[in-house]
Amino acid sequence: MTDWLGRLNGKAGVGAMFAVSFVFFLLVTFPYEILKESISNGLSRVTGLSITMSDFGAKLPIGMKASGLSVSSQGQKAKTIKLNQLSARINPLYAFAGKLAIKVYVENPDQSAMDLFVVIPLSAAFGGGNPVPSRIEVDAQNFRVDELAAFALSAMASGNDVNPLLGPVLQAIGFSGKLDGTIDLSIDASAPQQSAGNIKIKFKDAVLKLSDPSLGLPDQRFSKAGVQAALNNGVLVIEKGSGFESDELTLSGGGSVAIKSSLPTSQLQLEILVKLQKSLAEKFGFLLDAFSGGAAKNGELRLQVKGPLSQPTTQPI
Questions:
Q1: Long-range contacts of 163-172 (CB under 8 A, 24+ apart)
Q2: Is a pLDDT exceeding 70 seen at residue 38?
Q3: 192 preceded by cis ω (within 30°)?
Q4: H-only helix segments in 161-246
Q5: How far apart (Å, rounded) are the C-alpha atoms in residues 226 and 204?
Q6: What are 178's strand-pairing partners?
Q7: Is the whole model's pTM more than 0.70, yes or no?
């Protein structure tokens, strides 16, 4: 009996070694150059963006890595994001619990980096089930966001539902800084009250760029730029005063978000302060008045945001 089990274990070991070796052989010998072009062209067609990469290959044990990645928008004021490296790996152990766990690594050309780890139900990954992630981790180490901010602002400015007065302003402004800090959230969709975690992020050397000739304003260097929040018993409490503050601009807030099993029904209870001073008040005060329906006073607007995440209500206070 013992000899038989020994032979069986030996055969199983040889089989497992063969399977691992075969997968490794496929990963090493796969024609990634052809796949690189197919992925670049396919993503470009689907997104309408110009996507290129200098190298593409496997990221062991299960994953892919792209190097020299460039993503450009279309139009006269096209914006480009360049990344030194972008990789994504899947942790297969989570599959036994019915979950998909992905770890993403992003590295800028200046080698500043950010790690992202997300765990979602497998059913949600394939278009069904609850899409609420059970785990979110972000670790940023002086990650420069200049190009990402420019790309996002350009996309917002060209959106179909953007305010006609706001669109040209979004095209003209810019933001530079380094994202530093962590996000560590554990969310239990079946029992939201058991969710816990914290958010501690800040932007170093943060500057709102307003020196475009069409604006003619001084850049705003923020003395404070960041968000701190704690998630306990299913309620995310945002520390009052989180936000951005410079000599002429204050955008801050605080409040809570009660996490629900269905994320869109999560309840918001937030207070937001927007305050313009000096040249910003003179230049953009009319935008604040237009947005608030005349509720802004002396360049200052306080808002209350409450209700479900999918359809919150906003009113001046």
A1: 163/290, 163/291, 165/287, 165/290, 166/287, 168/214, 169/215, 169/284, 169/287, 171/77, 172/210, 172/212, 172/214, 172/215
A2: yes
A3: no
A4: 167-172
A5: 9
A6: 144, 204
A7: yes
